[in-house]
Amino acid sequence: MSADRPAGVGPVSGGQGGEQDRGNRRGGPGRGRGRRGGGRREQPVVPDANFVSYYGRPVVRASPWKADIPTYFFAGGLAAGSSLLAAGADLTGRPGLRRATRIAALGSVGVSLYTLVHDLGRPARALNMLRVIKPTSPMSMGTWSLTAFGPLAGVAAVAEVAPALERRLPPRLRWTARLLAVAARPSGLLAAAVAPMVGTYTGVLIADTATPAWHEGRRELPYVFAASAATAAAGLGMITAPVAEAGPARRMGMIGAAADLVAEYRMETSMGIVSQTLREGSAGRLMRASKVLTLGGALGVLVLGRRSRVAAIASGAALLAGSAGTKFGIFHAGQASALDPRYTVVPQRERMEGGGSTGPRRP
Amino acid sequence: MMKLPFDLPFAAGPEGPAADAGWQDAPDRKGFFTDTSICIGCKACEVACKEWNGVPQDGIYELLGSSYDNTGALGASTWRHVAFIEQRVPRSAPVDLGMPSFDRPGEKHDHQARDQETGDFRWLMSSDVCKHCTNAACLDVCPTGSLFRTEFGTVVVQDDICNGCGYCVPACPYGVIERRNGPEGTKNVGIAQKCTLCYDRLGAGKTPACAQACPTESIQFGDVVELRERAAQRIRKLHEQGVTDARLYGADPHDGVGGAGAFFLLLDEPEVYGLPPDPVVTTRDLPAMWKRAAIAAAGLAAVAVASFAGSRR
């Protein structure tokens, strides 16, 4: 490296081998162009930005979360959407769709609770979540909405077996089954009232972090997650409910898929260089697969959904898988963006050149 | 802008973050001023911190290939971290004193050319630590109330309450706090851990272990107000001496975290030391995010209604 080169034109530091060099690079000689390793020759879409890092190490820390958390994002959305469908089916007299979606809501809220507790470093202390109500913590607010949602969705689902229960119980205890049957509709409606919060707060939860891909996506993430909740629930509803009753699920699936694709597009185009993390690696593969599945599922619903049960199941499965792909893709993009210092340093440098973010200011 | 039913303490009042958190008659806010221009990289702070706080071993003993830094980064079991940066700085062109030389006129000495090629060398050393932000993201997002604001204005994890949800880890804009990994039986395994600014020592009127052990007073402990004055004086003096690269980091109460309780004097850009150049407490954007979530939630409900409104059985 020669000392008299002007800033910015020093030799590039490779992705892998040049760690020690990176720390050395600074204003004058060889200010590192933090370029990806390998000999890519074509012009990248987003120009590589100059940035310096400490031996290429991350600046922010990636979350310690594993597959439990994106599974929860998916299951929570599925539970929320299902209980909305269940409430609608209940009010419009669609017992088949109602039964299927109520059971789906309870099952997926069960998966949610399992994954949330399993992910904790100290699962035995899970109930400490209920020590405080804290509006500055989306996880606290989410825990409380799930705490309200779970039992309500549970009562509505268990009430589906109330008639069978009533026949089998000794006469002395039959009042419990009748009570369940009476409580079913109010519980289901209350669950549906909480459901939109359950389905969207997770978008705020991850956006309220220093993880670049999540924080930069903060404007669109609640919309992406809400739409993804709708497509997932619609997909499962189409699989489990009779075709004749699944009309609302099909419509919800199509609207949800369209909203999902639009919101994702807007998110990816508003994130600056951090959007690369949604296109590269496992996150990129998941996001591409989820778009194909969501679009394919929606088209399947549109063309064949009402005609055959098989087509309904296939389209529904595609929508479900598309929703899961979105949640896992966004999760992995966030983890990757935290591990590469470029995505922390470059946007902050750009912000500083535009006058800095200083001051307790809200955008 | 939507107003939430609570007021996020985005700018601590003149009484400081402890008063904001509800402490009455709180003592003066305590913090660190780490002057990296006089750090000698001895790592006494790392050792003292480990010893006093009983922090377990962090990983296997490995050589990281990053100068003398084999600690790597702050984490659950590293509450002080000394960074080492080796830099070549361009040597200014030698002034021609018109001395007689053995070369033909216009030609340079070999060694002169070589000097200019290699330039001068410098070592940057800096002891990093939790910033104890005025607006602390880790504390804001903690769902159990385990992280709390002490009467000294610092941010501390209550080990017996944290359930290891891990939310504070990605929330911290500096990547400081971490959930401790390790085999079963490791102290505080599975819960979030970070510098406490030696809360136990502060309560007894003592100096935190790292500052106590620092042989050059690169780590200075004291009242934040006084430390900020001291830092301003030090930076003036360095600038007068021609060290124009010197700058303060985290000392400005108007920055994205409302100022840090532990701030630094650096000799290069923050990112050279692995620090974010423009950190922001993410909860600053939370009211706007909740607003968007409310719109999205209303949209989800509307989609459900629309799905059923289309057809009647």
UniProtKB/TrEMBL annotation, chain B:
GO biological process, one term: cellular respiration
Binding sites annotated in the UniProt record for [4Fe-4S] cluster 2: C49, C195, C198, C210
Cofactors named for this entry: [4Fe-4S] cluster
Gene3D superfamilies: 3.30.70.20
Note describing how the cofactor binds: Binds 4 [4Fe-4S] clusters per subunit.
Residues binding [4Fe-4S] cluster 3: C130, C133, C138, C172
A GO CC annotation given for this chain: cell envelope
Annotated [4Fe-4S] cluster 4 binding sites: C142, C162, C165, C168
Entry binding sites for [4Fe-4S] cluster 1: C39, C42, C45, C214
InterPro entries referenced in this protein's UniProt entry, alphabetically: 4Fe4S_Fe-S-bd, 4Fe4S_Fe_S_CS, FDH_Electron_Transfer_Unit, Formate_DH_Fe-S_su
SUPFAM superfamilies the UniProt entry points to: 4Fe-4S ferredoxins (SSF54862)
Ranges where the 4Fe-4S ferredoxin-type domain occurs: 30-60, 121-152, 153-182
Keyword vocabulary terms for this entry: 4Fe-4S, Iron, Iron-sulfur, Membrane, Metal-binding, Repeat, Transmembrane, Transmembrane helix
GO molecular function term, any single one: metal ion binding
Keyword Transmembrane: yes
Listed PANTHER family: FORMATE DEHYDROGENASE, NITRATE-INDUCIBLE, IRON-SULFUR SUBUNIT (PTHR43545:SF6)
Protein name listed in UniProt: 4Fe-4S ferredoxin
Lineage, top ranks: Bacteria, Bacillati, Actinomycetota, Actinomycetes, Propionibacteriales
